[in-house]
Amino acid sequence: MIDTLYRNIYYLVIGKYFSAQELGFYTRAVQFKDLPSTNINGVVSRVSYPVLAQLQDNPVKLKAGYKKLIKAIMLMTFVLMLGLSAIAEPLIISLIGEKWRTSVVYLQMLCFVGMMYPLHSLNLNMLNVKGRSDLFLKLEIIKKILAIPTIFLGVFFGIKIMIAGMILNSFLLTI
Fold it and tell me: What distance in Å separates the CA atoms of residue 64 and residue 55, rounded to the nearest whole number?
C-alpha cells in the first residue's frame, strides 16, 4: 500500500497544484520512461532472486554473480535509457503528435530516474537473498521519506525541479 501511494503521489501533487495539461505531459513522459525501465526491472526481479538465492551459501560466488548481474543490467539499462532520452523528441512527436512536445523534456529527465531503478531493485533483491528483509523495509521507508522534500520542491518551483529531485533521490537510494 505504501509503495502504491508512493508511485502515485506525484500524479496527485501535479494534478492538485498544476493544470490538467501539465499532468498529461508528465503522465505521458512517465509512460514512455516506464516501458524499458519497468520491463528490464521485471526481468531482473524474476531472474536475479532465484539465481542469487542458489549462490547464497557461497559468498565468493554470490559476490561474483552479483557483480556480473550489475554490469549486464546497468549496461543494458544505461544504453536503453540514454537512447530513449536522445530520441525523445522525434519519438514523441511522431507517435503522439506535436501537441505533446512539452513532455519531451520531462521524458528526457525521467530517463535518468529510470536508469537507476533496475539497480535499486537488484540491490533490494540482494538484501532479500541475504535474509535482511528488515533493511529492505527500512530502505523503502527512507525512500518514501526522501520523496517528501522532492514533492515540496515540485509544488513551489515546478515539475522540472521535482523531477530533478527525483533524479537526485534515485542516485542517493542506489548508494
Answer: 10
